[in-house]
Every structure is written in structure tokens, then in C-alpha cells.
Amino acid sequence: MKKEISSRFLQQPATKIGRWSGGLALLSMVMLALNNFGLNPFNQMSGKLQPILVTAWDMIMLGSLLAGIVLGIIAVTRKRERSWIAWLFMIPLVFLLLLLAAFLHEVITSRQPMRAQTAPTPDARIVRTPVFFDDDGSPDGTSALLFLLSDPRAEVNAVSMSYGEAHPQIYIQHLGALLERAGYGDIPLGAGQDAPLAGNNAFPNKVREGSNDFWGFPSGSANNSYPVEDSAALLVKICEEADKPLTLLVTGSLTNLAQALRLEPGIKNKIAAVYIMGGAVYTDGNIKGLIPESQNNSAEWNIFADPLAASEVFASGLPLYLVPLDATNQVNLNKQNTRAWRKGGSIPDFAADIYDSRMESWNRDEIEFWDLMTAEIMLNPAHCVFTPLHLEVVTEEGNTQGQTRAVDGTANVNVCLEPDVEAIKQELSRVFNSRK
To answer: Which of 43-47, 282-286, 395-399 is predicted with the least confidence, judged by mean pLDDT?
Structure first.
């Protein structure tokens, strides 16, 4: 009868299976460590081969992990291996089980709305900026709102929806439910007209249908109906009632602000500043990103959606601070950044979920954050160098409609062209982490 080969804990493996299981387990752990510390050698490469090499790296890592586990189980159960090298398979096995548990937790929690909570009491020593928030119903804009709710320096006086990615009357109900769960159910809600002041430029139906469904996130708005005012009238009312001038954050079309100025031009005296995410000054626009067949290489979507409104606002004499694609193209987020936010509760968690889901659905390791970046700069203007320019908006139909063009003349817009990338990311982490 053939004697079975076995080993003791402090010995080398006595079988090939034992040696292979330990080697593969060790290889997978090294590759996992390199990934987690951002040292994957292929992530820093450029060119057409880069995504192929990254995928190959990930496949080898996963294959080594699974093979090491399977061979390790065989080695200790059937080959009676007891060497510490053969037992190395337990480490990737524990990692795999933790990963599975995290995935199941994510699936379960993603099907539930953000849990209800109470808004924190603001510190009386902090100087707060009254903010009128006006977005067009984008995931990025919703994250900007979550940031403002998390920063005690911002006092959100109203939440408004403009024409753009969403149908205003539908999306504002989603935000009403979000605000109620976050403990801010007393913030007034506004919705503007579902059309530009002139023309018919519109986001693709697929985008607008996604906004109707709250981009696939649990909403809870179907259970309640929240009172909504006309956005332009709401802005006029809040400006007139405010104890001090408002700061406006406009991260969609400028339709609501243009209508409010038409309704009551005197509100200009009650507006301290208007921060706008929009435009492309010295860089290409982004219309082709959603409409590949478009011949418009100049415009950015928020301005393109309602060029006439943008033109009227730019000529209004208001103190305008524009964060265009020139600036936002320089700053991206990755999952390491969003992971750092997940210490401040469900509001930062939801902001992280929004960007993580975009990266996954777009199959990208990094993603732009246009509106959130503008909200951060609004509260920290020193995080971008603003250049005074005279901008005009092309309103005529054609391949340059919606272009924000720098021309000679007295400056009417302060344009963010040099953002402090690291300062912006660090401030996002600080604010979201400190959310209580």
C-alpha cells in the first residue's frame, strides 16, 4: 500500500498541489496589494494597449486567487498538507468572503432609500452663506446638493429645478423625498418650465427618461407629493425676503434665473454672486458626448439647452462666476476618492454611490464632476483662479449655437480657468467625512 505524503506546519509542502496553492495565493495577494495601494504598473500607462493590459492583470489576479483557494482546499483535505505555505489559501478565501459580503450588503442597501435622519444643528459661530440651489436634475447636480447639505457654511434656502436633463416637475419630487429623509423637509421647492426661453434644444430622451427614474436610485417620491412653486417666482420671493444677499448656484440651464430677472429686475441688488457650471471658453464643447452626429463642437450642454437665457444673464450685470469645461476637464474623481467620503453617514454615502454607479455604467476608472466641483468652488473661491472676461453667447441656430465666446469688451463674467485640483478633492473629503 502506497504511503501518503504529508507535511507539518513549519515544513515545506510535500506535494506539488501544496506548493502551487501557496504560490498562487501569494501571487494573488501581492497583486491585490499593488491594486489597493495604486501601484498597478499598467494604470499609469497610456495608449491603446493600456486597457487590455489592465484587464489582463485583473484576470490573472482573479484567476490566481480562485485557483489558489481551490488547490489549497484540495491540498489540506485530500493531500493532508499542513505546511503554512499550503494554508496561505485562507487569506484570499477570507478576502473573497468579505468581498462577497460587501457586495450583498451593497445590493440590499441599494434597493432601499436613504434612511431618514435629522438635520444637524448649525454651529452658531460659523458664518453661513444663504444659497439658492438651481439644477437641471442631473446625478452630478444632486451630488452638489448633497455637498451643500453636508457643509455647515452653506444654508440652502431653496431647491429648484430648471429645464435640462430632467423634467423639472418630476425630478423635484425625487429631491423633495431626498430632502425629507435627510431632515431638510422644510426647504422650499421650485420647478421651472419644461422648455427653453426660445428654440427647442433638448437633451436626448434616454437621458430625460433616466432622470424620471431618479437614475435608478431608490427615491420614495411615489409615496408622497411635495408642494412646488414656480422657480422664477420663488427666487424673487426669497430674494425679497432674505436678510442678506443670496448666492446662487446654477448647475443647469439659466432659464429660471433669466425668467426671474424678467419678472423682477430689482432682485439683482439682493444677489451677492451667481456661480454657474457651464460653457466652454477655450476648449471644445460636449454636445457630441450625447449626440455623436452633432456638428456642434463649441457648446456645453447647460448653455446650449437655453442660449437665450444664458445670453440675458451674461448681460444682466450680476456678479457671475463661471466654472466651464476648461476647468472641469482638469479634475476627475475615482473610487479611491469616493471611498474616502464614506465616513460621514448616508448623505456622503449617497454622493459616493452616484459617482461609483456612473463609473461602473460607463466602464471608466475616473469620472468628471462638473456640478459638485462648482459647488465646492462656490464655498471655497480660492480653489480656482478666476479670469475676468467679456463673454457672449451665440444664440443663432447653427453649429456654434450655445458657444460661450470671449470677445473684446468690459468683463462681464469671472471665469475659472486654473482650478486647484488637490485642494478641491481634499475639501470634498473633509466636508463629507465630517458630516454628522
So the answer is: 43-47
